[in-house]
Write a structure and sequence with these properties.
The chain contains 3 helices and no strands. The chain has about 80 residues and is an all-alpha fold. It has one domain. About 10% of the residues are buried.
Length: about 80
């Protein structure tokens, strides 16, 4: 569990340096929604609060990065919260 969280924190620090303001807001919104729901899916990204950031929020990140981020959330969901 600690290694996944550590990897997440390292990536988050790097991401903050490389992204524009909308992308950072999108990433932080993913983090907020996931921490409250303990679950997130691609379809969630097409609803509020994500649509407050952009008309088509998933287009803010390259598909492979978005897929990696959602997979990381799934891993955390299992390892930290104990459900899939």
């Amino acid at each position: 569990m600690a290694s996944v969280q550590s990897e997440y924190e390292t990536r988050r620090d790097l991401i903050d340096v490389m992204l524009n303001a909308d992308q950072i807001n999108f990433m932080r919104t993913i983090e907020t929604v996931f921490s409250k729901k303990h679950h997130i899916e691609y379809s969630d990204l097409l609803e509020l609060p994500f649509t407050n950031i952009a008309a088509n929020p998933p287009q803010l990140l390259p598909k492979n990065d978005l897929d990696e981020l959602l997979n990381m959330c799934k891993t955390l969901e299992v390892e930290v919260f104990g459900h899939a």
